Structures are given as C-alpha cells and as structure tokens.
Amino acid sequence: MRFKWLIPAIYILFLLLPIYWLVNMSLKTNDEILSVFSLWPHDLTLDNYRVIFTDASWYSGYINSMIYVTINVIISVSFALPAAYAFSRYSFVGDKHLFFWLLTNRMAPPAVFALPFFQLYSSIGLFDTHIAVAIAHCLFNLPLAVWILEGFMSGVPKEIDETAFIDGYSWPRFFVRIFIPNIASGIGVTAFFCFMFSWVELLLARTLTAVNAKPISAIMTRTVSASGLDWGVLAAAGVLTILPGTLVIWFVRNHIAKGFALGRV
Amino acid sequence: MIAKQQNQKAWFMVLPVFLLVAFSAVIPLMTVVNYSVQDTFGNNQFFWAGVDWFRNLVHSERFHSAFLRQLLFSGIILAIEIPLGILIALSMPRRGWGVPVCLITMALPLLIPWNVVGTIWQIFGRVDIGLLGYSLTALGIDYNYTQDPLAAWFTVVIMDIWHWTSLVVLLCYAGLCSIPDAYYQAARIDGASRLAIFRYIQLPKMQRVLLIAFLLRFMDSFMIYTEPFVITGGGPGNSTTFLSIDLVKLAVGQFDLGPAAAMSLIYFLVILLLCYVFYTVMSNIGMESTNHGGS
C-alpha cells in the first residue's frame, strides 16, 4: 500500500500529456511543427495567439460562446430553483411522471433534435441568435439543474421552512432570505454544471448559428477544413477554450466532489 | 424519507420549467414523428408513407451494423471506465495538498469542448506530428488511425477513457468521502481484510453514485457524436460510424428526412428503454442491500 499514490499520479500524467502536447504545439511555428519532431518548442513564438486576438472572426467566437453560455446558466438556475423546491417539498398530481419526463430529455441524443430545432428556430425568427442556442441548451441543462438542486434541497431540514413560516415570513421572502443562502453551494454547483454542458456542446450550437452567434468551437472546425493545415493556430484556439473551464473549476474546487454526486451522497 | 405535503399549487412553481422544456422537446419531437410517417419528393410536398420507414429500417443492414458498433462501443467504455474509476478513487488521497491537485486536474478534461477533445486526440495520434502516433511508430507498432480500423477504434476508445473516466472517479470519490471514520475503525477492530472492507463498507456506500455514474456514462456514450466525428469522421470505411454519426449523415448529408426521422425515434426509444431497465434493476439492488444491512 506504500505505492498507492502511484495510481492517481500515473492517471494524472495520462490526463495531462495530450493537453501538454496541445500547449506545446500552440507555441511553435508551423514550420517547426511539420519539419522537426520536438518535445518542447525550440523556437518559442506567440504568433498563433496573436492571430486569434487580432482577427475578429476568431475572437468573436469566444464572445459568442460566453454570451449564450451565460444566458443559459441564468435561465437554467432561475427557472429550476422554484421547480426543484416544489419537487423536494411537496407532492402533487403527476410529480413522479413529470420528473422522469424531464430526465428523459437529458437522455435525448442531440443528433435527433438538430434538424427540427433548425426548422423551429428559423420559423420563429430566432435563428443565429444567442438566445436560440441558450434556449436549445435548456433542453438538457434545465432537467439537470432541477435534478441537482432537488438533491441539495432535500438535504436541508424541513424544520427550517416551518420555523420561518411561523415567524411570519412570506414564501418569496423566506425563499430569498433564508432558503437560498442555505443551498448556496448547491446553486454554485448547478451553475457549474450548466456552464460545463453548455460550454462543451457543439452539435446544437453549430446547427442553430451561422455568423452572428457562431461559437468558437464551430469556428475551429471551419478553419480545419478551409485553410487546411494551420496546426499552430488550431492548437492555440484549443488551448484558449480550455482556459475558461479551468477558471470555473478553481471557483468550485471545494464543492466539486459533492457536486459531481449531484448532491446525493 | 420525509413525508411530503400534498400541495397542488406546487404545479405553479414547476410550470415555467415544464413550458420551456416542452417548447424545446415536444415541438421538435412532433416534427420528427411527422417526418417519420411521410415521404417527400421535394417542393415541400409530403405523402403519407405509414410505417414503411420503420419497416425498412428494422431490416436494413446499415442500421444493424451501426447499432451493433454502438453497443460494442458503450460496452467497452463501461467495462473499462467503471472499474478503473473505482480503482483510482480508492487510491486517491483523502487529505492534504494532494486533494485539490487531484480534483482540479481530473475535472479538467470534462470542461473541454467536445470537438476540442477530438482535435487534441487527432493531433496527439498523428504519426507525423503527434506524440502518441510518433512514439508508437518509433516502437515499431503499425499504427495509423486514418487507415486501420483497429487503430481507429483504439484511438476513439482511449480518447473516451481520457475524457470521461474522471466523472466516474469524482462520483466514487464523493461516495467514499461520505463514509465516517468510525466504520473503518470498527472494521480494523474486527480484523477485516482489505477486500472485506471494500465489499461490505465501501461498495454499498458507493452504490448510489455508481448508479448515477453508470447511467450518465451509458447515456452519453450511446449518444456520442462530436469526438469520433472529429477524429475519424466515422471512418475508415464505416468502422467507427456510430448511431449518431449515421443519423446525421442520413438527415443532413443525404437529406433523407423520412428514414432519418424513423431512425431518430427508434434510437431515442432504445435509449429510454435501456435507461429505464438499468435504473429499475440498479435501484432494486440498492433497496435490497439496504434492507439486508438494516435487518
């Protein structure tokens, strides 16, 4: 058992190697990538990053992604809060069926919905807007948000609600002043998950956008096929998509383990 | 479990969620159902086709092979990721500086956009500029994922292990952290072996999170699209064309809306059915073992 730490160490090495390789490539010139095989950049350059930060068709992709992810997180969390409270505290007609139905949408393959979504959002004039992608991502993020929040809320004793009502709190005031602070970490975790699944999804985001709201990940695929082999810029763009996730993980690092268990340990 | 209060007004709290999800789910689903029973020759003219598409699909060689590939892929993924995840979670440190390091680095792959994951492995596996491909070739192993089906499968599977094992690890770790120290002390006093501790203390405590991990991994691996699409594009030949890729080829590539819609529905129903079965079976096991432990 003395070498137990080796297992996670090897695993982490395995996780970091491909990421290191991407960073390594993003700091090389295209000539170096294609001519010599080197484990670290001999001719260190930041040109690849400069291309991205100066070309509007590149950096607007990041802004678009950020906008629709933020809208999605706000919608998901604020809609899911009262619903999760209802599921965790009350029983009502059809509650179990409704809950299962919500979860089935988490299971729906996006490939099934891609084409109908395109037609639906085109017909109501929302095609190529940030809000369309944000609402489309609600399909899987809202059920997940309700699911996670319900788990955290069920962990809060019911006596808190009852005491507050006896003290004369109205429901909205109780909810905002007492209940939400109690599940603050749960809300953080929920926002983290909504961010995560909205940030990593490509198929729907690509289907629903053309120019104005095109996400960075879709711009990357286009560049691969069009200009062919600009590996350095591609790698730099990839590195930049990893950064926001890293930042967000840092904020929730203390709750991450419990969060991944969706509040149900 | 606390007895919940009957309150029909709670529907009002659920209503916004219900409406929004219904908008995003029911209308597109009805569109799909609509297409699946009609045929078109363009010009927006549709003809009633009945269940022809479904009948064709159930008998089509192409659907069968895509379906089998999908099952094989999900099977391999689950068989590797779940045991590996448990093993890593068991050997992770419980306190000290190692904890945040492990958690943050392990969560990292989960937050990378899926097509970037594809790109990373596409580069990493290339024989000329990728570390993996270059090293394997240098060792004398014939590895080229764009031509050899076996190498393509190997790349896609190892990519998925890289991408998603952390989810299983983090879930199991959360389960393990919730076990009070007193349990281990009691086990030590009884002289329980390492295996017995795992079987009778750790495994039961991880059951709920394992259920979640299993369901999430199964659903997501069954729906996988972006990563293999970026790495292999479904090739070489059709060897890594999974259900989603086949579906998108059919719907967007060939614009065969009828067959594609029929395929969507069957695909969705299969996922629902399998998840329901797994969910019921696994929660029944959970129920039995808690009853057993309690008596």
Automatic annotation (TrEMBL), chain B:
GO biological process, one term: transmembrane transport
ABC transmembrane type-1 domain ranges (all copies): 67-278
UniProt cross-references to Pfam families, sorted A to Z: BPD_transp_1
Designated name of the protein: Glycerol transport system permease protein
InterPro entries (alphabetical): MetI-like (IPR000515), MetI-like_sf (IPR035906), Sugar_ABC_transporter (IPR052730)
Highest classification ranks of the organism: Bacteria, Pseudomonadati, Thermodesulfobacteriota, Desulfobulbia, Desulfobulbales
Main location: membrane
One GO CC term, this protein: plasma membrane
Entry's family note: Belongs to the binding-protein-dependent transport system permease family.
Entry-linked PANTHER family: GLUCOSE IMPORT SYSTEM PERMEASE PROTEIN GLCT (PTHR43759:SF1), TREHALOSE TRANSPORT SYSTEM PERMEASE PROTEIN SUGA (PTHR43759)
Topology in the lipid bilayer: Multi-pass membrane protein
Top-level taxonomic group: Bacteria
Compartments, as annotated in UniProt: Cell membrane
Keywords, alphabetical: Membrane, Transmembrane, Transmembrane helix, Transport
Signal peptide: none
Membrane-spanning intervals of the chain: 12-37, 71-90, 97-124, 161-184, 209-226, 257-279
Species whose genome carries this gene: Desulfofustis glycolicus DSM 9705
